[in-house]
Task: inverse folding
């Protein structure tokens, strides 16, 4: 008797799940998602690209790099031109980055010039200082 009740309960649960699935599948989806207000798009673009300094190659970097990841990821990294080339090759080999073609040289120049390692401290060295001896 108990086994019969379990069969009945599972049958009813299966029917309910099937009906629920059918209802959700036939519910029409909107033709297109609700539009994002133009003001929000402009604000997002401005903040997302503010890390990239102006210069020749910025548009190519935006078109090819920011397509997949944030400009913040670019700005937080520093590498030589050869280092950036290595990162591009790694992305092409493992992440599906497309061939950059004639844009590659421009992108490498931009990244190498704007995001290369800096050998400087927190402040400029002190100059023209008159040192004096402390008394013992």
Result:
């Amino acid at each position: 008797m108990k086994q019969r009740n379990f069969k009945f309960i599972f049958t009813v649960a299966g029917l309910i799940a099937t009906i629920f699935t059918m209802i959700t599948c036939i519910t029409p989806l909107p033709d297109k998602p609700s539009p994002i207000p133009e003001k929000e798009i402009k604000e997002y673009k401005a903040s997302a690209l503010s890390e990239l300094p102006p210069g020749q190659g910025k548009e190519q970097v935006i078109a090819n790099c920011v397509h997949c990841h944030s400009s913040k990821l670019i700005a937080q990294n520093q590498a030589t031109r050869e280092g950036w080339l290595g990162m591009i090759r790694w992305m092409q080999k493992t992440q599906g980055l497309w061939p950059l073609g004639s844009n590659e040289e421009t992108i490498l120049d931009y990244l190498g010039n704007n995001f290369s390692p800096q050998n400087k401290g927190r402040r400029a060295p002190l100059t023209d200082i008159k040192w004096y001896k402390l008394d013992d």
User: Anything to note?
Assistant: Residues 2-26 form the longest helix (25 residues). The two ends are 102 Å apart (CA to CA).
